[in-house]
Amino acid sequence: MELGDKVRSLRLKQKISIEQLSVMTGLSKGLISQIERDITGPSVASLWKISKALNVTMNYFFDEYDDFNKVVRKNERKKIMMKNGDRTYELLSPNLKKQIEMLWIEIEPNESNSEDLISHEGEECGVVIKGNLQVLSGDKVYNLEEGDSIYLDSTIPHRYINPGSEQSVSIWAMVPPSF
After folding, report:
1. 78-82 sheet: strands from edge to edge
2. What superfamily does domain 3-61 belong to in CATH?
3. Distance between CA atoms of residues 15 and 26, nearest Å
4. What's the pLDDT tens digit per position in 100-151?
5. In terms of C-beta density within 10 A (0-12 exposed, 13-18 middle, 19 or more buried), how is residue 172 classed?
6. Rounded to two decimals, what is the model's pTM?
7. What's the CATH architecture for 74-175?
8. Hey, CA dihedral for 159, 165, 167, 172, is it positive or negative?
9. What gap in Å lies between CA 154 and CA 166, rounded to an integer?
10. Distance separating alpha carbons of residues 145 and 99, to the nearest angstrom
11. What integer is the mean pLDDT of 39-67?
């Protein structure tokens, strides 16, 4: 089932109209409709707002497999592409039912992981594998280059930006799983 179908199905199951979900999330009715019809992919911040409003974790929209396989092959990773493919998230951990979540994040030049600062329970640590990454956390800005790593308190609003001219690739560990 596609992400949009899952949003629509859950919304209807809870007897929530698009207008009500719009009010609950602060997102426009048009955007919610486009997400439900898979015309556009939501930003991480938008999906976070939708999942909060519908009382599920973001994991609900992606975790379709109950089997626990310790090995995740590169070509079998659960992949989440956002906004015309300018951001890609790949789940490196087998699922989101354990204590840690590992993500491979690719962000194209002059793009970010979200339009808004987001916050969630827990902690995260990331390392830049390729390119540059600017991390905004609260009122601080951190500029990272290949090989640099950072630890964040996830409850402090944050976001990642690729200020460089090449794709940024980073690996992130988050506890507890929040995606």
Report:
1. 78-82, 87-91, 101-107, 168-175, 123-130, 149-153
2. lambda repressor-like DNA-binding domains (1.10.260.40)
3. 18
4. 889 999 999 988 777 778 888 899 999 999 999 999 999 999 999 999 999 9
5. buried
6. 0.65
7. Sandwich (2.60)
8. negative
9. 26
10. 28
11. 78
